[in-house]
Amino acid sequence: MFVDRVRIKITSGGGGNGCCSFRREACVPLGGPNGGDGGDGGNVYFVARTQLSTLLDLRYHAHWVGKRGAHGQGKDRHGKRGADTYIEVPVGTVVHDIGSGEVLADLTEEGETWLAARGGRGGRGNARFATSTNRAPRFAEKGEPGEEREFVLELKLIAEVGLVGLPNAGKSTLLSVISAAKPKIGDYPFTTLTPNLGVVSLSDHRTLTVADIPGIIEGAAEGRGLGHDFLRHIERTRVLLFLIDLGDETPLETMRILDTELQRYSEALSRRPRVYAFNKADIPDNRERYHALDAQLPEAAHLISAATGEGTRPLLEALWKRVQDDRRDASAEASDMPEPQREYAFRPPFEITKTRAGFRVLGDKPRQAVAMTDFENEEAVRHLQRRLEKMGIFKALKRMGAQPGQTVYIDEYELEYEE
Questions:
Q1: Within a 10 A sphere around the Cβ of 45, how many other Cβ atoms?
Q2: Residue range 96-142, pLDDT digits in tens
Q3: φ, ψ for residue 165 (rounded to 5)?
Q4: pTM confidence score
Q5: Class of domain 5-155 (CATH, top level)
Q6: CATH superfamily of 351-416
Q7: pLDDT digits over 389-412, tens only?
Q8: Does domain 161-331 have CATH number 1.10.510.10?
Q9: What is the DSSP letter of 223?
Q10: Burial of 71 (0-12, 13-18, 19+ CB in 10 A)
């Protein structure tokens, strides 16, 4: 089963809790704090693998949870860090943000890795909080919860040549003849229901990768037929091969339909280099029709028969030349582009917004401080108070007119403001 679009939720590993412990030793009346830190939670990564060709496994495993860090222990023993989790996806997978749709990562090479969710920080043990004025702290930090994120994964096949044509144009037959691929072939429309990828071997150890896309019909860019769902798989191709059935009543009208649908779907696709192959030349009437249209055909037109293999070798050589030209053009454009300038933007440590119920504090630092506080420990709460004060949150609330008793929201926690 071919799956090229899934929704996935990821929760990185939470950090381990810090330990509150004191040294106990014979003949040592005042043993100091020796609670160890908790281990950091494990990160979650996406990693591209060439042996995968579908996102099917992720459809049935839609929520991944990272490994939690171990808790700290007495005698200054720190918890073990949680192991990282690697989610394998096919090469060509694009990662989108679930909310904005922004492209966050494009994994196009074997072994390419992208950090999807960072593990939570381990809590500090009470030995970390010992000072000259507080030599016996009786609190430790909780581990930071893991990061939760949702993504949409979209697979776009990576091929150098994309086969484009109406249903029953002979795309699957051509792919089976020029490569070792074994797509399903039938004499009825929409025999091909999923994209197929084939590797074509030429002389001098040259290879081409060719993608066979389900047939496009008129209106595919608006969602008709199957072509709209799979047009994304030819977005990465360097050259488009228009395969046209000479048995159509008007082959030139078929060319116009294909060109129109690609232009409606993507302006970039309409500018992609293309080669035209007129198929089924093994039928005498079709061969006569091709020669009758000779004056109206584009320069890059080839007469072929996918069933017998006639004309396929010159066609493949023409495709190879077009692919090489596109590679050189892309390299020249990349070398001419100036190096991107690094931009620096100030990001405030927190933001405060006024709501009907009180005030809401946004920011990674205050969120982390609250999430790692044990609110059942009075000393830990006082430590949180000092941390928020050092951040300047209380001064900012006072400037915004906060009154004693009003509620202050930090993440999902509700605090009461006091001067």
A1: 18
A2: 999 888 999 999 889 999 999 999 999 999 999 999 888 899 999 99
A3: -175, 170
A4: 0.77
A5: mainly beta
A6: GTP-binding protein OBG, C-terminal domain (3.30.300.350)
A7: 999 999 999 999 988 889 999 988
A8: no
A9: T
A10: buried
